[in-house]
Hints:
The complex is a heterodimer of chains A (166) and B (103). Chain A is mainly alpha-helical and 166 residues long. Chain A has six helices and no strands. In chain A, α1 packs antiparallel against α2 (28-48). Chain A is globular. Chain B has 103 residues and is mainly α. Chain B has three helices and no strands. In chain B, α1 (6-26) packs antiparallel against α2 and α2 (30-55) packs antiparallel against α3. The longest helix of chain B is centred in the C-terminal third of the chain and has 31 residues, at 60-90. The radius of gyration of chain B is 17 Å and the shape is elongated. Classes of the chains: A mainly alpha (166), B mainly alpha (103). At the A-B interface, α1, α2, α3, α4 and α5 of A face α1, α2 and α3 of B.
Amino acid sequence: MSITVAVFYLLAAVTVGSALGVAFANSIVYSAFALMGTLLGVAAMFVLLGADFLGVVQLLVYVGGILVLTLFAVMLTHRISDVNVSNRAVGRLPGFVLVAVVFGWMVRVAGRARWVMKAPGAPAPTTYGIGEALLTQYALPFEVASIVLLAALIGAVVVSRKEVKG
Amino acid sequence: MGDLSLGHFVVLGGILFALGLFCVLTRRNAIGILMGIELVLNSANINYVAFARYNQTGYDGQVFAIFVIMLAAAEAAIGLAIVLGIYQSFETIDVAATDRLRQ
């Protein structure tokens, strides 16, 4: 087993273990903190796949932005009495059976598919290429994305502000 | 890359997807459901980057992953704002208890 495979299994253990915490923790606060391990593990996976820029974006946007936002929302809506309340709608067993069926089916399909693969080359810096792709081939989606972000920002402010009467 | 294959990453993405789906299905806390959606989006991103890496298709996969991250940020901002609004109206964010559109 090469060192790369060992690193992969270590990172995969961190990622999946944290994801198990997200899915099974009783307290939503524990789930939010476990989500941090998953997001960090995924960022490390991106680096392992040679996507250095994407790893940094994952770190900045997810861990630095979305996770902090989620923690704020958890703390603002959390009540101590909610901790031990069972928060299952479907029930663990039916949910587990359904998810196991979906997962087994996906693994079966992935195992039988004939992927067209080429041997990956040595990892190279990707920032230059991604920047060029965003400003040439993907210029229109890039601009639409900025408008979507602006609309989401204004929408979030409008939805969450206090209603001023008069 | 040693003897690390595409299958490793596809199975990892599958596991993350299954756990995210389980989270979405079984949580009644609205924020928990949003966390499950984040897991699902992350699993999709792992697949995008892995397939791009093992197919040598340039930067398409990574650019799509960036767009997915951008949409996840917008979704989190709007979703959590709505959750806070629901909490102000209902004093709870249990999705089974919030069954009215007006007060």
